[in-house]
Amino acid sequence: MHKTPIHQKRRVCVIGAGTAGLCALKNSLQEGLEAVAYERGSEVGGTWIFSEEMPKNKYDEVHSSMYQGLRTNLPKEVMGYPDYHYPTEIEESFITSHQVLNFLRSYADHFKLHPHIKLQHEVIRVRPRQNDWEVYVWDHNNNTCDPVYYDFVYVCNGHYTEPDMPKIEGMQLYEGQQMHSHLYRRADKFKDQSVLVIGAGPSGMDITNHIRQAARHVYLSHHLATTPNTAFMGNVTQKPDVERFTKDGAVFKDGSSESFDHVMYCTGYQYSFPCLSTDVGIQVIDNFVQPLWKHCININHPTMSFIGLPFNVIPTHIFDMQVRFTLKFYTGQRELPNKEEMLAELEKEQGERWDCGFYNRKKAHQMGERQFVYYNELARMAGIDNIKPVILKLMKDCGKKYIFELDTYRNNRYRIVDDENFLKNPL
Length: 427
What we know:
The protein is α/β, with parallel strands linked by helices. Helix content is 22%, strand content 23%.
Protein backbone atom coordinates (compact mmCIF):
# COMPACT_ATOMS: atom_id res chain seq x y z
CA MET A 1 0.00 0.00 0.00
CA HIS A 2 1.34 3.41 -0.97
CA LYS A 3 2.24 5.61 1.97
CA THR A 4 1.46 9.31 1.96
CA PRO A 5 4.66 11.42 2.04
CA ILE A 6 5.18 12.90 5.48
CA HIS A 7 4.90 16.50 4.25
CA GLN A 8 1.42 15.81 2.84
CA LYS A 9 0.05 14.57 6.15
CA ARG A 10 -2.22 17.02 7.96
CA ARG A 11 -4.08 15.64 10.99
CA VAL A 12 -2.53 15.89 14.47
CA CYS A 13 -3.73 14.23 17.67
CA VAL A 14 -2.47 15.75 20.92
CA ILE A 15 -2.94 13.65 24.07
CA GLY A 16 -3.37 15.99 27.02
CA ALA A 17 -4.01 19.73 27.44
CA GLY A 18 -1.47 20.63 30.10
CA THR A 19 1.67 22.71 29.64
CA ALA A 20 3.10 20.41 26.94
CA GLY A 21 -0.18 19.57 25.20
CA LEU A 22 -1.26 23.21 24.82
CA CYS A 23 2.13 24.00 23.32
CA ALA A 24 1.92 21.07 20.86
CA LEU A 25 -1.58 22.13 19.83
CA LYS A 26 -0.70 25.81 19.37
CA ASN A 27 2.45 25.17 17.32
CA SER A 28 0.74 22.54 15.15
CA LEU A 29 -2.08 24.94 14.34
CA GLN A 30 0.39 27.70 13.53
CA GLU A 31 2.06 25.37 11.04
CA GLY A 32 -1.28 25.01 9.28
CA LEU A 33 -2.02 21.47 10.47
CA GLU A 34 -5.44 20.19 11.58
CA ALA A 35 -4.87 19.57 15.27
CA VAL A 36 -7.10 18.37 18.12
CA ALA A 37 -6.12 17.99 21.79
CA TYR A 38 -7.93 15.45 23.95
CA GLU A 39 -8.07 16.17 27.67
CA ARG A 40 -9.69 13.71 30.07
CA GLY A 41 -10.22 16.42 32.71
CA SER A 42 -12.86 19.13 32.73
CA GLU A 43 -10.41 22.00 32.12
CA VAL A 44 -6.99 22.74 30.67
CA GLY A 45 -3.92 22.89 32.91
CA GLY A 46 -2.95 19.28 33.60
CA THR A 47 -1.01 18.74 36.81
CA TRP A 48 -1.40 22.40 37.87
CA ILE A 49 -5.06 21.90 38.75
CA PHE A 50 -5.45 21.67 42.53
CA SER A 51 -7.93 19.03 43.66
CA GLU A 52 -8.77 17.48 47.01
CA GLU A 53 -9.59 14.25 45.17
CA MET A 54 -8.31 11.03 46.72
CA PRO A 55 -8.37 7.54 45.19
CA LYS A 56 -11.63 5.64 45.73
CA ASN A 57 -9.88 2.27 45.57
CA LYS A 58 -6.49 0.82 44.68
CA TYR A 59 -7.33 0.95 40.96
CA ASP A 60 -8.42 4.59 40.97
CA GLU A 61 -6.01 7.16 39.50
CA VAL A 62 -5.67 10.68 40.83
CA HIS A 63 -4.32 13.19 38.31
CA SER A 64 -3.33 16.23 40.36
CA SER A 65 -0.19 16.45 42.51
CA MET A 66 -0.78 20.01 43.71
CA TYR A 67 -0.94 20.75 47.44
CA GLN A 68 -2.17 23.69 49.47
CA GLY A 69 0.37 26.51 49.66
CA LEU A 70 2.58 25.24 46.85
CA ARG A 71 4.81 27.84 45.23
CA THR A 72 6.97 27.14 42.20
CA ASN A 73 10.64 26.31 42.69
CA LEU A 74 11.47 28.06 39.40
CA PRO A 75 10.79 31.75 38.77
CA LYS A 76 7.98 32.68 36.42
CA GLU A 77 10.55 34.40 34.22
CA VAL A 78 11.71 30.97 32.97
CA MET A 79 8.27 29.30 33.12
CA GLY A 80 6.61 31.20 30.30
CA TYR A 81 6.65 30.19 26.65
CA PRO A 82 9.15 31.84 24.26
CA ASP A 83 6.32 33.78 22.60
CA TYR A 84 4.02 34.25 25.60
CA HIS A 85 5.18 35.48 29.00
CA TYR A 86 3.75 35.86 32.48
CA PRO A 87 2.19 39.27 33.14
CA THR A 88 4.63 41.81 34.55
CA GLU A 89 1.93 42.86 37.04
CA ILE A 90 2.77 39.78 39.11
CA GLU A 91 5.49 41.04 41.46
CA GLU A 92 6.72 37.72 42.81
CA SER A 93 8.94 35.50 40.72
CA PHE A 94 8.05 32.32 42.62
CA ILE A 95 4.32 32.03 42.19
CA THR A 96 1.41 29.84 43.31
CA SER A 97 0.05 26.86 41.40
CA HIS A 98 -3.18 28.82 40.84
CA GLN A 99 -1.24 31.60 39.11
CA VAL A 100 0.40 29.02 36.85
CA LEU A 101 -3.02 27.58 36.05
CA ASN A 102 -4.38 31.03 35.21
CA PHE A 103 -1.41 31.60 32.92
CA LEU A 104 -2.09 28.35 31.02
CA ARG A 105 -5.74 29.34 30.65
CA SER A 106 -4.70 32.73 29.28
CA TYR A 107 -2.29 31.02 26.83
CA ALA A 108 -5.16 28.91 25.51
CA ASP A 109 -7.36 32.01 25.24
CA HIS A 110 -4.71 34.15 23.56
CA PHE A 111 -3.96 31.61 20.83
CA LYS A 112 -7.65 30.66 20.44
CA LEU A 113 -7.04 27.01 21.26
CA HIS A 114 -10.36 26.15 22.91
CA PRO A 115 -12.22 25.25 19.68
CA HIS A 116 -9.53 22.61 19.12
CA ILE A 117 -9.65 21.09 22.63
CA LYS A 118 -12.07 18.31 23.57
CA LEU A 119 -12.48 18.27 27.36
CA GLN A 120 -13.56 15.13 29.22
CA HIS A 121 -12.34 13.11 26.25
CA GLU A 122 -9.90 10.37 27.23
CA VAL A 123 -7.60 8.65 24.76
CA ILE A 124 -7.77 4.99 25.73
CA ARG A 125 -5.92 3.32 22.85
CA VAL A 126 -3.50 4.40 20.15
CA ARG A 127 -2.55 1.91 17.46
CA PRO A 128 -0.48 2.36 14.28
CA ARG A 129 -2.04 1.39 10.97
CA GLN A 130 -0.44 1.12 7.54
CA ASN A 131 -0.56 4.84 6.83
CA ASP A 132 -1.89 6.58 9.93
CA TRP A 133 -2.91 6.21 13.60
CA GLU A 134 -6.12 4.76 14.99
CA VAL A 135 -7.03 6.63 18.16
CA TYR A 136 -9.91 5.42 20.34
CA VAL A 137 -11.40 8.27 22.35
CA TRP A 138 -13.79 7.85 25.27
CA ASP A 139 -16.20 10.78 25.44
CA HIS A 140 -17.06 11.02 29.14
CA ASN A 141 -19.88 13.45 28.41
CA ASN A 142 -21.84 11.00 26.29
CA ASN A 143 -20.23 7.75 27.46
CA THR A 144 -19.26 6.78 23.93
CA CYS A 145 -16.00 5.40 22.58
CA ASP A 146 -15.16 5.79 18.91
CA PRO A 147 -12.08 5.55 16.70
CA VAL A 148 -10.62 8.66 15.09
CA TYR A 149 -7.74 8.66 12.59
CA TYR A 150 -4.68 10.90 12.61
CA ASP A 151 -1.40 11.30 10.75
CA PHE A 152 0.66 12.44 13.75
CA VAL A 153 0.41 11.84 17.49
CA TYR A 154 1.87 13.98 20.25
CA VAL A 155 1.98 12.17 23.59
CA CYS A 156 1.70 14.92 26.21
CA ASN A 157 0.07 13.10 29.13
CA GLY A 158 2.65 14.28 31.67
CA HIS A 159 4.53 12.15 34.18
CA TYR A 160 3.22 13.20 37.59
CA THR A 161 0.35 10.73 37.88
CA GLU A 162 1.78 7.30 38.68
CA PRO A 163 3.84 7.34 41.92
CA ASP A 164 7.17 5.53 42.00
CA MET A 165 7.19 3.70 45.32
CA PRO A 166 10.49 2.27 46.59
CA LYS A 167 10.83 -1.31 47.75
CA ILE A 168 12.18 -1.25 51.29
CA GLU A 169 12.34 -4.21 53.65
CA GLY A 170 9.53 -4.21 56.21
CA MET A 171 7.15 -1.80 54.48
CA GLN A 172 4.33 -4.28 55.08
CA LEU A 173 5.23 -4.63 58.76
CA TYR A 174 5.04 -0.92 59.54
CA GLU A 175 1.69 -0.14 61.22
CA GLY A 176 1.65 3.64 60.79
CA GLN A 177 0.26 5.58 57.83
CA GLN A 178 2.13 5.52 54.49
CA MET A 179 1.46 7.77 51.51
CA HIS A 180 3.19 9.12 48.41
CA SER A 181 3.63 12.87 47.98
CA HIS A 182 1.26 12.61 45.00
CA LEU A 183 -1.60 12.46 47.51
CA TYR A 184 -0.29 15.12 49.91
CA ARG A 185 -2.66 18.09 50.12
CA ARG A 186 -2.49 19.80 53.55
CA ALA A 187 -0.03 19.97 56.45
CA ASP A 188 -2.73 20.01 59.14
CA LYS A 189 -3.24 16.27 58.58
CA PHE A 190 0.05 15.83 60.46
CA LYS A 191 -0.66 18.14 63.39
CA ASP A 192 1.33 17.08 66.46
CA GLN A 193 2.45 13.89 64.67
CA SER A 194 5.91 12.49 63.98
CA VAL A 195 6.63 12.06 60.25
CA LEU A 196 9.33 10.39 58.17
CA VAL A 197 9.86 12.04 54.76
CA ILE A 198 11.82 9.91 52.28
CA GLY A 199 13.52 11.87 49.51
CA ALA A 200 15.14 15.32 49.35
CA GLY A 201 14.34 16.39 45.81
CA PRO A 202 12.34 19.58 45.21
CA SER A 203 9.08 18.08 46.50
CA GLY A 204 10.74 16.32 49.44
CA MET A 205 12.39 19.50 50.67
CA ASP A 206 9.32 21.66 50.13
CA ILE A 207 6.90 19.21 51.74
CA THR A 208 9.25 18.77 54.70
CA ASN A 209 9.14 22.54 55.17
CA HIS A 210 5.34 22.51 54.95
CA ILE A 211 4.77 19.56 57.27
CA ARG A 212 7.24 20.60 59.96
CA GLN A 213 5.10 23.68 60.72
CA ALA A 214 2.27 21.43 61.89
CA ALA A 215 4.07 18.24 62.93
CA ARG A 216 5.72 17.50 66.26
CA HIS A 217 8.86 16.22 64.53
CA VAL A 218 10.00 15.39 60.99
CA TYR A 219 12.77 13.00 59.98
CA LEU A 220 14.16 13.68 56.49
CA SER A 221 15.76 10.56 54.98
CA HIS A 222 17.97 10.95 51.89
CA HIS A 223 21.29 10.00 50.31
CA LEU A 224 22.42 13.38 48.99
CA ALA A 225 26.20 13.79 48.99
CA THR A 226 25.87 17.36 50.32
CA THR A 227 23.70 17.97 53.37
CA PRO A 228 20.70 20.22 52.65
CA ASN A 229 20.17 23.32 54.77
CA THR A 230 17.50 22.57 57.38
CA ALA A 231 18.96 24.84 60.07
CA PHE A 232 15.85 27.04 59.95
CA MET A 233 13.63 23.99 60.55
CA GLY A 234 13.93 23.48 64.29
CA ASN A 235 12.04 20.21 64.45
CA VAL A 236 13.62 18.44 61.46
CA THR A 237 16.30 15.76 61.81
CA GLN A 238 18.18 14.48 58.77
CA LYS A 239 18.71 10.73 58.45
CA PRO A 240 20.39 8.45 55.89
CA ASP A 241 18.46 5.93 53.77
CA VAL A 242 16.11 3.50 55.50
CA GLU A 243 17.63 0.05 55.97
CA ARG A 244 14.34 -1.55 57.04
CA PHE A 245 11.01 -0.66 58.58
CA THR A 246 9.88 -1.88 61.98
CA LYS A 247 6.41 -2.09 63.48
CA ASP A 248 6.45 1.54 64.64
CA GLY A 249 9.38 3.11 62.79
CA ALA A 250 12.58 2.30 60.94
CA VAL A 251 16.23 1.36 61.25
CA PHE A 252 18.49 3.54 59.11
CA LYS A 253 21.68 2.64 57.27
CA ASP A 254 23.84 4.23 59.96
CA GLY A 255 22.34 1.79 62.51
CA SER A 256 20.16 4.41 64.23
CA SER A 257 16.42 3.88 64.68
CA GLU A 258 13.41 6.15 65.13
CA SER A 259 9.68 5.82 65.72
CA PHE A 260 7.09 7.88 63.82
CA ASP A 261 3.38 8.00 62.95
CA HIS A 262 3.52 8.62 59.20
CA VAL A 263 5.77 7.95 56.20
CA MET A 264 5.72 10.34 53.25
CA TYR A 265 7.39 9.00 50.09
CA CYS A 266 8.76 11.85 47.98
CA THR A 267 10.30 9.37 45.59
CA GLY A 268 9.19 10.59 42.19
CA TYR A 269 6.97 9.19 39.48
CA GLN A 270 6.89 6.52 36.81
CA TYR A 271 6.57 7.29 33.11
CA SER A 272 3.39 5.59 32.04
CA PHE A 273 1.54 5.46 28.73
CA PRO A 274 -1.39 3.10 29.29
CA CYS A 275 -3.18 4.16 26.11
CA LEU A 276 -0.40 3.04 23.77
CA SER A 277 -0.75 -0.41 22.23
CA THR A 278 2.25 -2.73 22.18
CA ASP A 279 2.67 -2.33 18.41
CA VAL A 280 3.46 1.34 18.94
CA GLY A 281 6.95 -0.08 19.53
CA ILE A 282 7.79 1.78 22.74
CA GLN A 283 9.15 0.19 25.92
CA VAL A 284 9.44 1.81 29.33
CA ILE A 285 12.02 0.15 31.58
CA ASP A 286 12.78 1.96 34.85
CA ASN A 287 11.62 5.25 33.26
CA PHE A 288 13.83 4.79 30.21
CA VAL A 289 11.40 5.35 27.33
CA GLN A 290 12.89 3.72 24.25
CA PRO A 291 13.66 3.80 21.41
CA LEU A 292 13.40 7.58 20.99
CA TRP A 293 15.43 9.85 18.75
CA LYS A 294 16.49 13.02 20.57
CA HIS A 295 14.35 12.02 23.56
CA CYS A 296 11.13 12.67 21.66
CA ILE A 297 10.59 10.95 18.26
CA ASN A 298 9.46 7.31 18.25
CA ILE A 299 12.12 5.60 16.12
CA ASN A 300 9.82 2.69 15.24
CA HIS A 301 6.99 5.04 14.20
CA PRO A 302 8.47 8.53 13.69
CA THR A 303 5.08 10.23 13.23
CA MET A 304 4.64 9.88 17.01
CA SER A 305 6.48 12.15 19.44
CA PHE A 306 6.71 12.32 23.23
CA ILE A 307 6.93 15.83 24.63
CA GLY A 308 8.44 16.57 28.03
CA LEU A 309 10.32 13.42 29.05
CA PRO A 310 13.68 15.09 29.88
CA PHE A 311 14.01 16.31 33.48
CA ASN A 312 16.32 18.71 35.28
CA VAL A 313 15.53 21.11 32.45
CA ILE A 314 13.65 24.37 31.77
CA PRO A 315 10.25 22.68 31.41
CA THR A 316 8.05 25.01 29.34
CA HIS A 317 10.88 26.05 27.05
CA ILE A 318 12.00 22.50 26.33
CA PHE A 319 8.39 21.48 25.59
CA ASP A 320 8.11 24.30 23.08
CA MET A 321 11.49 23.49 21.56
CA GLN A 322 10.76 19.78 21.17
CA VAL A 323 7.46 20.56 19.44
CA ARG A 324 9.02 23.08 17.05
CA PHE A 325 11.85 20.60 16.39
CA THR A 326 9.51 17.74 15.45
CA LEU A 327 7.24 19.96 13.37
CA LYS A 328 10.13 20.85 11.07
CA PHE A 329 10.22 17.17 10.08
CA TYR A 330 6.46 16.65 10.09
CA THR A 331 5.91 19.57 7.71
CA GLY A 332 8.67 18.45 5.34
CA GLN A 333 11.00 21.39 6.06
CA ARG A 334 13.64 18.94 7.28
CA GLU A 335 14.14 15.27 6.43
CA LEU A 336 14.25 12.68 9.20
CA PRO A 337 17.27 10.36 9.37
CA ASN A 338 16.55 6.72 8.60
CA LYS A 339 15.85 4.23 11.37
CA GLU A 340 19.40 2.88 11.49
CA GLU A 341 20.86 6.38 11.84
CA MET A 342 18.46 7.28 14.63
CA LEU A 343 19.20 4.06 16.52
CA ALA A 344 22.93 4.65 16.16
CA GLU A 345 22.57 8.16 17.58
CA LEU A 346 20.51 6.87 20.48
CA GLU A 347 23.09 4.17 21.25
CA LYS A 348 25.93 6.71 21.07
CA GLU A 349 24.23 9.16 23.41
CA GLN A 350 23.30 6.52 25.97
CA GLY A 351 26.82 5.10 25.76
CA GLU A 352 28.19 8.53 26.66
CA ARG A 353 25.86 8.65 29.66
CA TRP A 354 26.93 5.22 30.90
CA ASP A 355 30.61 6.15 30.39
CA CYS A 356 30.08 9.16 32.67
CA GLY A 357 28.94 6.85 35.45
CA PHE A 358 25.20 7.19 34.84
CA TYR A 359 24.43 3.54 34.20
CA ASN A 360 20.98 3.93 35.60
CA ARG A 361 17.93 3.70 33.36
CA LYS A 362 16.06 6.13 35.60
CA LYS A 363 18.58 8.79 34.56
CA ALA A 364 18.27 8.08 30.82
CA HIS A 365 16.29 11.31 30.30
CA GLN A 366 18.05 13.37 32.97
CA MET A 367 19.68 16.48 31.57
CA GLY A 368 21.15 18.91 34.09
CA GLU A 369 24.25 20.41 32.46
CA ARG A 370 23.62 18.28 29.35
CA GLN A 371 20.47 20.26 28.61
CA PHE A 372 22.43 23.13 27.08
CA VAL A 373 24.09 20.79 24.57
CA TYR A 374 20.65 19.29 23.86
CA TYR A 375 19.08 22.68 23.11
CA ASN A 376 21.95 23.52 20.76
CA GLU A 377 21.50 20.20 18.93
CA LEU A 378 17.78 20.68 18.39
CA ALA A 379 18.25 24.26 17.19
CA ARG A 380 21.06 23.35 14.80
CA MET A 381 19.47 20.21 13.34
CA ALA A 382 16.04 21.71 12.70
CA GLY A 383 17.03 25.31 12.05
CA ILE A 384 14.84 26.65 14.86
CA ASP A 385 15.35 29.47 17.34
CA ASN A 386 17.28 28.42 20.42
CA ILE A 387 16.34 29.28 23.97
CA LYS A 388 17.53 32.81 24.71
CA PRO A 389 20.81 33.06 26.66
CA VAL A 390 19.16 35.07 29.45
CA ILE A 391 16.82 32.14 30.21
CA LEU A 392 19.78 29.77 30.47
CA LYS A 393 21.67 32.17 32.74
CA LEU A 394 18.66 32.70 34.95
CA MET A 395 18.08 28.95 35.18
CA LYS A 396 21.69 28.40 36.27
CA ASP A 397 21.28 31.06 38.94
CA CYS A 398 18.36 29.10 40.42
CA GLY A 399 20.14 25.75 40.48
CA LYS A 400 19.87 23.75 43.73
CA LYS A 401 18.45 26.73 45.65
CA TYR A 402 15.62 24.49 46.91
CA ILE A 403 18.24 22.43 48.79
CA PHE A 404 20.62 25.05 50.15
CA GLU A 405 18.53 28.25 50.37
CA LEU A 406 14.99 26.94 50.82
CA ASP A 407 14.15 29.50 53.50
CA THR A 408 15.17 32.55 51.45
CA TYR A 409 15.44 31.91 47.70
CA ARG A 410 11.78 32.60 46.95
CA ASN A 411 12.28 36.12 48.31
CA ASN A 412 14.26 36.97 45.17
CA ARG A 413 12.60 38.80 42.33
CA TYR A 414 13.99 38.47 38.81
CA ARG A 415 13.54 40.83 35.90
CA ILE A 416 14.67 40.09 32.36
CA VAL A 417 16.40 43.13 30.84
CA ASP A 418 17.18 41.79 27.35
CA ASP A 419 18.11 38.54 25.57
CA GLU A 420 21.37 38.33 27.53
CA ASN A 421 20.83 39.94 30.93
CA PHE A 422 18.60 39.83 34.00
CA LEU A 423 18.36 41.63 37.33
CA LYS A 424 17.81 39.98 40.70
CA ASN A 425 16.60 41.90 43.74
CA PRO A 426 14.94 41.00 47.03
CA LEU A 427 11.19 41.60 47.19
